[in-house]
Specification:
The complex is a heterodimer. By secondary structure, chain A is α/β, with parallel strands linked by helices. In chain A, 44% of the residues lie in helices and 19% in strands. In chain B, helix 1 packs parallel to helix 5, helix 1 crosses helix 9 and helix 1 packs antiparallel against helix 10. The longest helix of chain B has 31 residues. Chain B is globular, with a radius of gyration of 19 Å. Classes of the chains: A alpha/beta, B mainly alpha. Chains A and B meet through helix 2, strand 7, helix 8, helix 9 and helix 10 of A and helix 1, strand 3 and helix 10 of B.
Chain lengths: 409, 296
């Protein structure tokens, strides 16, 4: 009896180990060439749970749209992996850098995964990128867009940022602020990689034009009351206000600024005001807000129209959220690299540096030496009548350079 | 001068919200000895309930009352279904782990809220009537601000009266003071504790709709913030019944607002938690409790 008591847990443990081993075998086989059908399995990351779950859902929707498009057309279009189907394995980071870093370790150790596409928050991508870089693992940041992600990974060149990077966001709106003749801007920004990063770039751009902000205040994402910061800003008598926050936070800032009698033109360089969440929450106060976005709804190239139609058919939504767009492009980039000749994760980075997609629906997609997107576009708008009215386009021409382009380019 | 006055007003409004968060936490902590980590998330979920019911019924009063009732129900049910059974099965060596069931309930409640509001926030119309009033300069004080000031005075007095003048209130205090003696004297300890959780929920539900009405939005993240700020306020106030929560919340509001206004927002949390650690080291009963920890 005593022996059986000892043997029972050992038996359970052994069965568990056998089951685990069987599970791993199955996964590896399916990821490569199981059953004769080749599969390219991409690790898809993002906040699939928690308060920012909507971003994760959008990342998933965009990635699945790209996979459906590629698989329906017969899989990878050329190269050694021709005909391979795209599949995903999801890794939830809940917008937490520690989770992202832990996920990255697991992803690298799983030889069935060929690349990573994802992350909603720059802090998360910045935590993951050094590990991906060290292991030369293909990493495509699909929504997080701080230039610090690339700085953390500049040696191995296996890290790519699909959206335009922070300097493009900051410079496009700052240039419009200056063109409007404002000389006494104030800044109110979130702390962290995103808020401090973009606010710092706004200050740098202003200084290039010999303009110094009259006030520079900060807050955390947990804050809801900004009256004290706004009172300090009002004391400095600014002629404009640059806010780097999130959609709901920017709406609160506008409301509280109005309560305090601080009524100056409002600029958003973070690309977060072109959505219903902000416009509904801010109401009439949203009128006149100047912001930027990489996805102009009215763009009418064949690829743009096709992308919008397919996204609407898949999700029922007529406007494609930014995380969905860039996850879509990230997956398209991986598929294009395989079609160009990549055979696996070992040589994928080399081919990712060579791809050039003329128009993904958002614009041309190719990467520079440093992994940033060459020619990433941002469109500047002013909210008028409850809708964004676009009036100026910008194109990223280097890590810290933009140029103006026509809004209907 | 306008900055100083704005900082003062913010100190009071934020402070009173923290007081109301702390009051619910203090009630449960004093009665059961447990830190109810689910308090904030319960009041957050209840605020969403208030939003839904007020929208469906078209009545602000229904929204407020249903939020208070929902938070009370979550608190009482969690105690009867989870905390009490877990406590009765607790074994030696598990001391100090009493907060885990509440943490589990908090995470469950938060996930329910995330499912209900995937965006993480929703616009919240003011459930309290009134118009904006010019306080000073251009500052137009929102109507909920006045209701918040009124609640900051009335609610602590009402809770104190319930604890002193009603049977259930006296039972709560008896269980808090001597739980074993209370049980030996035939008091229904489990039900009394459930009543304490429900009373804390009523206060929490009201705090939730006041918060959301004041800021015009409700957030899924409100839950953790309410628990954290409420706990800090309760500790600063000395973990008393009512007065400690009220004064602790106001103290926290003053520290946060003045550090933000005259130093930097970046030092706000540093100052707050340095103060908290200082209080725990030097005056563990709380700066404001003095020697009368048990006074109502």
């Amino acid at each position: 009896m005593k022996r059986w008591r000892l043997a029972a847990p050992a038996l359970v443990l052994a069965l568990a180990l056998v089951a685990g081993a069987c599970g791993n075998d199955k996964k590896d086989t399916a990821a490569s060439t199981g059953g004769g059908a080749k599969t390219v399995t991409i690790a898809l990351g993002g906040p699939f749970s928690g308060a920012d779950k909507a971003t994760g859902d959008n990342i998933r929707a965009g990635a699945e749209l790209a996979a459906a498009e590629i698989n329906d057309a017969g899989g990878i279009a050329g190269g050694p992996m021709q005909g391979a189907r795209i599949a995903f394995e999801e890794f939830d980071d809940a917008d937490t850098p520690a989770n992202g870093a832990a996920n990255m370790r697991t992803i690298i150790d799983d030889k069935a995964l060929v690349a990573f596409v994802g992350s909603g928050l720059s802090d998360v991508s910045t935590a993951m990128a050094p590990l991906a870089s060290r292991e030369a693992f293909p990493f495509l940041s699909a929504y997080a867009s701080s230039e610090k992600i690339l700085e953390a990974a500049k040696d191995a060149k296996s890290v790519f940022v699909v959206p335009p990077t922070f300097p493009a966001y900051a410079f496009s709106v700052t240039d419009e602020l200056l063109k409007a003749g404002h000389t006494k801007p104030a800044i109110l920004h979130a702390t962290g990689t995103y808020g401090d990063g973009i606010a710092g770039l706004v200050v740098d751009r202003l200084k290039e034009k010999s303009v110094t902000p009259v006030a520079n205040e900060s807050f955390t994402f947990a804050d809801t009351d900004f009256r004290v910061q706004l009172a300090k800003i009002k004391d400095a008598t600014p002629d404009s206000l640059v806010v780097v926050g999130l959609a709901t936070i920017d709406a609160l800032v506008l409301t509280q600024a109005d309560e305090l009698g601080l009524r100056v033109p409002f600029f958003d360089p973070g690309g977060i005001t072109n959505n219903d969440t902000f416009i509904n929450a801010a109401g009439a106060l949203a009128e006149g807000v100047v912001g930027n976005t990489p996805t102009r709804d009215g763009r009418n190239t064949p690829a743009a129209t096709s992308l919008r139609d397919r996204y609407k058919a898949a999700t029922g939504q007529s406007v494609i959220p930014d995380p969905a767009v860039f996850a879509y492009e990230g997956v398209r980039a991986v598929a294009a690299a395989f079609a160009a000749g990549a055979s696996g994760r070992g040589d994928l980075v080399e081919y990712l540096h060579q791809i050039s997609i003329e128009d993904t629906g958002v614009g041309p997609l190719k990467f520079g030496e440093d992994g940033s997107r060459i020619g990433g576009r941002l469109y500047v708008f002013r909210i008028t009548g409850g809708k964004p009215v676009f009036f100026q386009g910008y194109e990223q021409t280097g890590p810290k350079a933009v140029r103006e382009i026509p809004v209907d380019d | 001068m306008e900055l100083f006055l704005t900082v003062c007003v913010t100190s009071v409004t934020l402070g009173l919200l923290y007081s109301l968060f702390a009051l619910g936490l203090s009630l449960v902590l004093r009665t059961s000895g447990q830190l109810n980590l689910a308090h904030g998330d319960s009041l957050m979920l209840a605020t969403y309930v208030g939003l839904g019911t007020s929208s469906l019924s078209g009545s602000r009063a229904v929204g407020i009352v249903s939020a208070m009732a929902a938070a009370a129900a979550v608190g009482a049910i969690a105690h009867l279904a989870v905390y009490s059974p877990v406590a009765s099965r607790r074994r030696a060596g598990m001391a100090g782990l009493g907060f885990l069931p509440a943490l589990g309930v908090a995470l469950i409640v938060r996930n329910v809220a995330v499912r209900a509001d995937p965006d993480g926030s929703s616009p919240f119309p003011s459930l309290f009537p009134g118009g904006r009033v010019n306080l000073f300069g251009d500052y137009r004080f929102p109507p909920t601000g006045w209701w918040l000031l009124a609640a900051g005075v009335v609610v602590p007095v009402a809770v104190a009266l319930v604890l002193r003048r009603t049977t259930v209130g006296r039972r709560i205090r008896a269980v808090a003071d001597e739980p074993v003696l209370a049980r030996l004297n035939g008091l229904p300890v489990t039900r009394t504790l459930a009543a304490a959780y429900a009373l804390a929920g009523v206060v929490g539900g009201l705090a939730g709709v006041l918060f959301a009405s004041f800021f015009g939005q409700v957030f899924v993240t409100l839950g953790w913030q309410a628990t954290l700020k409420g706990f800090v306020a309760a500790v600063l106030g000395g973990l008393g019944w009512v007065r400690g929560a009220l004064l602790g919340g106001l103290a926290l509001g003053v520290v946060e607002s003045f550090v933000s206004g005259y130093l930097s927002t970046r030092f706000r949390d540093v100052a707050t938690f340095a103060l908290l650690i200082g209080v725990l080291l030097l005056v563990p009963r709380g700066v404001l409790a003095g020697g009368r920890l048990r006074s109502v």
